[in-house]
Design brief:
By secondary structure, the protein is α/β, with parallel strands linked by helices. The chain folds into 3 domains: 5-187, Class I glutamine amidotransferase (GATase) domain (Rossmann fold, 3-Layer(aba) Sandwich); 213-220 and 229-252, no CATH class; 259-338, Orthogonal Bundle (Arc Repressor Mutant, subunit A), CATH 1.10.10.60. The protein contains 14 helices and 10 strands. The longest helix is centred in the C-terminal third of the chain and has 19 residues, at 257-275.
Amino acid sequence: MGFTTIAVMLFDEVPLFEASVPIAVFGERRSGLPDFDVRAVAAEGGPVRTDAGIALSAPYDLDAVDEADLVIVPTWRHPLGRPPAPEALRALRRAHDRGATVVGLCLGTFVLAAAGLLDDRPAATHWRYAPLLASTYPRIQVKPDVLYVDEGDLLTSAGSAGGIDLCLHLIRRTYGSRLANDIARSMVVPPHRAGGQAQYIDHPVPVPTTGDPLGETLEWAMRHLDRELTVDALSAHAMMSRRTFDRRFRQVTGTTPAQWLLHQRILHAQRLLETTTEPVEVVARNAGFASAVALRPHFRRQVGVSPTAYRETFGEGGHRLGSARTRDAEDVAMNTAAR
């Protein structure tokens, strides 16, 4: 479902950068973007002191949480410090119970955990504190290596830049890749990193330059996604053995060549569905899939809806995501009944 009113819950002694992430993503007025109403909430009352000693005057109290479609806890003081105020935890539970989407970025995951919202669910947090989250809240299925986890109504992310990735993912899943890409371009950050990508990689993803075989291969693959690319073909293009290529690729990107390639194909299919009227069968082939039948399960797994439903939402004259998800579910039910 869409969201327009966003409550950002700020707690005392939090890191300044992480606290600013959702405000930077959703708060700036941009042409073509929904007019988000971002409300900075002093979750424990009074001025919010950051860990740098800077005092922030948040204009809203916890009543704003009760009115928000999207509630974000962008960070948290050290997990071994004093616990969140009980009234803040109650506000989070009320928000979730009435259907709001609730997000914990970085150490904000600990606040969602303290509210009991993550029991028996997978969740992410900063890799350094993942063991502490797992030992403190044993019912949570902690994912220590991923950038973020999307559970629909509850989302959690790794630290710092991982919070930006999750906020952009929220824009992408609700309003489409075009708007997400516009915001990313404005912020000068990568437009999309898959949630399953590793939090920490040995080297930054290379900017393709002459003499950089891996960077040149990534660029070449992006320009030829309509071809039947294999990992062997990629390693041959990079003039590396398969074993060396696999090891170097994971070091640089944090994922495997096959996973990266599939992710890029789905992103390309999304762009084509948004910007062209080509049949899904043609979109599938242009994105490197043998057919629409081959595209659909991967697209649904990564995006959450079928290609047709996605186009109805984000293509020219598209409807809201809620309508697309409903239509998608109806299509599945009809197909199942027909069989």
